[in-house]
Structures are given as structure tokens and as C-alpha cells.
Amino acid sequence: MQTRSEITTADGTRLHLSISGPQDAQVTVVLAHGWCLDRRTWQHQITALAGMGRRAPRVIAFDTRGHGRSGATRLREATLARLGDDMAEVIRRCAPTGPVVLAGHSMGGMTIMEYAHRHPGEFAARVAGLLLISTTAEGHTHTRYGLPGSLANLLRAGETFGAGLLARSGTWRPHRAVLPALRPALRWLLFGDDCAEEAMLLTMRSLGRAPLRSIGGFRESVGAQRRLDTLAELSGMPATVLVGDRDRLTPPACAESIAGALTGAQLTVLAGAGHMLPLERPAEVSEALVAIVRRAARDAKRARRAMTRPSRCSRAA
Predict the structure, then answer these.
(1) pTM
(2) Which of 31, 36, 57, 217 is 20 to 30 A from 68, alpha carbon to alpha carbon?
(3) Which residues have a Cβ under 8 Å from the Cβ of 253 and sit 6 or more positions away?
(4) Are 56 and 49 in contact (CB under 8 A)?
(5) Where are the chain's structural domains?
(6) Distance from C-alpha of 98 to C-alpha of 153, rounded to nearest angstrom
(7) Widest CA span of the chain, in angstroms?
(8) Within a 10 A sphere around the Cβ of 201, how many other Cβ atoms?
(9) Rounded to an integer, what distance in angstroms lies between the CA atom of residue 114 and that of residue 242?
(10) Start-to-end C-alpha separation, the chain
């Protein structure tokens, strides 16, 4: 059973959350969605985690500021740094104890990296596993939109200019009226060979809910982020990196550099898949997430046993 909740961040922004799973679960999973999307991106994975029965984790899925049902963001707060701080607040207030598994899609994965960068002590103490999906640690370095280099650079310049205009257009959503006309372009940009109608409709509804300030405001921060050094400091943490080989926004080169920095991470490239893996390839994403949760639960159980096992000195006494 899912319950809805809200928290207000330190800067006064309201974040909307859905929480499910047993309160006494061994592990908590926190799900972070992508740019211009919302927490509904994770609907298949939430169902899969609930299907783990008595081993099911607590699951927290939240709408990023300026997205979904969360409050609007001020333009100066439309940054990945602020999103990393938001994730820290969600974990402190909604999952104050126990191991945490973080899963992030696209900008959600970048949010996880920013949380690790800005709150390294908390991250090391709490996070027991990572699932990074269709994301990057190098901004727009590898993004070519599936186009030749010269055309990609031209498109990026136009996109960057347009994002600046949108960022200053406030919280209104006039683009909802033209989304049906944009459907073919969105289908090509976001999905691979196959695209279920339900996945396409949910993606368009999420995009329609995102205000212009959020669509444009986060662009500069997303394009500029560089966090490979942060990931290198997390080497050895249980982690899986997923990417589609038809991803035009965060192509396999992005995932390969993440896996190269995050020593020990498992990299999986899904043939024929695009950018929207949680909706496009829900079974593969759910399987990877369930595997990480199971490992985190086993590790937590072993740690508890080690803490309660009598030491040699106590036995000798």
C-alpha cells in the first residue's frame, strides 16, 4: 500500500513523496526520477519491490522540486547541487536509520552523484547500493542526439539558448497544448526500437506537468556537471549501471565512463533500448534493482551478526 506524504525543505520548497513497504524493512530504497519527469517513472519497479514479500524494502519515490506534484523551484535553486541537498533531506527525514539503496534515472542519477559529492560522510554511512540508469557523470560531453558531430553541436547551441529563455518564463505550462504534435520527435529522442503506448502516454503527461522554468532552468547545471572523481571515491560499493544502446541523450559512452570510475560496478548495455529504461525495459530494471536490494539486506544481516558476536576477549573472560 502506498501512502503520500510531503516534506518542506530548508529553503521552503515542498517535496511530494510516495512511501510504500513495511515500516520495519531491513532496507530502504529511494528512487529519483529524470529531468521533466516525475516519480511515476518508477511504477513498475515499485510493484516489483513489493513483490519481494517479507523481504520487501521500504520504498520512497519523490518528485524533484519543480516536477510532478512538488512545489515550484526558484530559478537560482534549479541546480543539481540543490537536488543533492534535497535528497539528503529526504533520507534524513524519511529514512533516518538503516541501509539505503539509491536508484536514479537520468537527472536522478546525477542527483545521487551530487548527494555523494556534497554529503560524503552521510553517503558513506548510509548508502549500501546504487542503481544508475541512463545517466552521466560528464554533463553533455557525450550527448550527440544520435546525430553527426556538427549537427549535434548546432542542436546543442540552439537547445542551450532556448533553455535560457524557458528558464525565465515562469511556472506556466503552455507546451501541453503542442505535445501531441511533438510526439514523433519525443518518441525518436527518448525511446529505442520498442515503445509501449502506456510508456509514451505517461512520459508525455509528465512532460506536460513540468513548468517552463524547470524545463529550461536545470539545463545549465545538467550540462556542466563533472563527477567522475566523486564516483572513483565510491569504488567497491555494490552498483549496477544500465544504458540502452539506442540512448540518444546519455549514450553508452556515458555509462562506460561511470563504470570505469566506479570500480566493481556491473555495466549492462540493453540492445535496442533508448533513454526511458524504467518504462521501456521495466523487467530488466526491476531485476537489477531487486538484486541490489537483496545484496544490501544480506550485507546488513552479516553486519548485525558481527556486532552481536562475542569477541575473543569477552569469551576468554
Answers:
(1) 0.92
(2) 57
(3) 142
(4) yes
(5) 3-316
(6) 45
(7) 78
(8) 11
(9) 19
(10) 50
Q: If you search the block for the grid coordinates 525518436, which residue do you land on?
A: 188
Q: Residue 295 corresponds to which cell in the numbers above? A: 545484496
Closest CA to 41 of 222, 249, 276, 289: 276
Residue count (the chain): 317
CB 43 within 8 A of CB 14: no
Instruction: Name the residue type at position 57.
Output: P
Cell 524557458 belongs to residue:
166
Residues 202 and 200: their CA atoms lie apart, in Å, by: 6
| Whether the Cβ atoms of residue 185 and residue 146 lie closer than 8 Å to each other | no
Cα 273 to Cα 78, 94, 315, distances in angstroms:
29, 33, 57
Give the whole-angstrom CA distance, residue 147 versus residue 159: 14
107-165 pLDDT, tens digit each:
999 999 999 999 999 999 999 999 999 999 998 867 766 666 666 666 566 666 466 66
Q: Are 133 and 287 in contact (CB under 8 A)?
A: no
Whole-number Å distance between alpha carbons of 69 and 233: 34
Can you tell me the distance from the alpha carbon of 159 to that of 268, in angstroms, rounded to the nearest whole number?
30
3-state secondary structure of 16: strand
Q: Which three cell numbers stand for residue 95?
A: 529514512
Q: Which fold has domain 3-316?
A: Rossmann fold (3.40.50)
Whether the Cβ atoms of residue 62 and residue 14 lie closer than 8 Å to each other: no
Grid look-up 529553503 returns 11
Strand 14-20 with 127-133, pairing: unpaired
In degrees, to the nearest 5, what angle opens at C-alpha 249 toward C-alphas 248 and 255?
Answer: 95
Residue-wise burial string across 244-274, b where 16 or more C-beta atoms lie within 10 A, e elsewhere? bebbbbbbbbbbebbbebbeebebbebeebb
